[in-house]
Amino acid sequence: MNNLFLAASSGVSGIYLVAAVVLILVVFLFSMFRRYKRCPSDQILVVYGKTGGEGSAKCIHGGASFIWPIIQDYSFLDLTPISIEVNLVNALSKQNIRVNVPSRFTIGISTEPSVMQNAAERLLGLGLDLVKELAQEIIFGQLRLVVASMDIEEINTDRDKFLSHITHSVEAELKKVGLKLINVNITDIHDESGYIQALGKEAAAKAINDAIISVSQKDRDGAIGQAQAVQDQRIQVAAANARAVEGENTAKVAIANSDADRRAREAEAEKIASASEKVQAAKALEEAYAAEKVAEDARAERKKAEQGADIIVPAEIDKRKVEIDAEAEADQIRRIAKGEADAIFLKKEAEAKGIFEILTKQAEGLDRIVKAAGNDSKDAVLLLIADKLPELVRTQAEAIKNIKIDKVTVWENGGGADGKTSTSNFISGMYKSVPPLQEMFNMAGMQLPDYLKGKDVEEAEIAEIKDSPKEESED
């Protein structure tokens, strides 16, 4: 029993151990899966710590990487573009003229490998506001240098060159901190001395004078051209009139021919149209008659189907109802019969089980009685008879207890064999009709006590009878 208990305990312990190992394995795998980080397209994944590379961090854009616990950690750099308003005021140009250059720059963190490394080293952990301030300072400084290296005329007239210098200078400095210049927009350029405005006025005046001269030249060329145009017009109009008269005559002939041909074709077309209309009308009537015939046939079929539905369908429904009722009644009879058969079977089975249990218990009781008698069958029988003795005696008494004798009349002279009278013989015979209890005890090997044999009672009755020669007894 102890070994079984120990085996069960060891089995349960083994199950708990396996469950704990599986739980630890699941937790470990889940934590490993969580350490696998994917980089969105609008961010840069920066893995720092022991990266195994040459740089201080590993930058990933648009990919994924496994972050080893304890020895590595990660962070993200946002690639959202940053718009910076740079209003450069009083910047000295190459001619020492102060100019104002209002502009707007759009920057963002670069995705070039080398520039990403710079961003990871210098911008990681900074918010967008701090990055914006840093870029604004760099742009201010480089914009002043570009303005100082160019003349006012170049800045004002050659804007492409000015933007190219700004882009080249600013982008080179932004790359050092990991940023990239996306767009530059110069809104306006003006100076406090009015030099740029004067240049504009000079250019406007020159343009106006050139326009006046050009207008005068164009007026002269226009007058000459107008005269030549009138000459050419008259010549061409006369030629056009001659050609027009000739064309009119030719056109009239062509019109007359065309009218004749038109009228002939109209007549032919009208003839064909009339014939076609008659043919189409005949076809329409034919199709109408055919459609009416189809409709009449369909109506006849519908009437036939309606009559069939009114007569056949109810008959089919009644027939099906009778069949269903008959099947239901037969099924009910079968179920009742099966239920009665099952009940009879269960009743008989229960009775058989009860009889079997009674016989089994009796056999067990007899077996115990024999064992109590020392396995001696005779002693066992004596025990059984002794157990039943009160019942046997009660049976002896009940045998004549309920006998009703309305009247007994005895005629005798008082004599009899062995001194017995007829009354005594009658009583003695009645008792002798009772089963012989003494013989039953003798067969069983037992001795009936004398007080149960009834000898004294019998002698007393005989003596009483002798004293009364004639006796009438009524009950």
Summed over residues and divided by their number, the pLDDT gives a mean of 76
Model regions low in confidence, pLDDT < 50 over at least 5 residues: 469-475
What's the assembly state of these chains?
single chain
CATH architecture of the domain at 80-193: 2-Layer Sandwich
Cα-based radius of gyration, to the nearest Å:
71 Å
Distance between the termini: 80 Å
How does the helix and strand content classify structurally?
alpha+beta
Q: What is the overall shape?
A: flat
Number of E strands: 11
Name of the level-1 CATH class of the domain at 80-193: Alpha Beta
Proportion of residues in extended strands: 5-15%
Q: From N to C, what is the helix and strand string?
A: HEEEEEEEHHHHEEHHEHHHE
Report what the structure shows:
68% of the residues lie in helices and 13% in strands. The model is unreliable at 469-475 (pLDDT under 50). It contains ten helices and eleven strands. Helix 6 (195-372) crosses helix 7 (377-401). Among the domains are: 1-31; 35-77, no CATH class; 80-193, 2-Layer Sandwich (Tetrahydropterin Synthase, Chain A); 379-474, no CATH class. The strands form four sheets. Strands 6, 7, 8 and 9 form a four-stranded antiparallel sheet that branches. Strand 2 (43-49) and strand 3 form a beta hairpin. With 475 residues, it is α+β, with helices and mostly antiparallel strands.
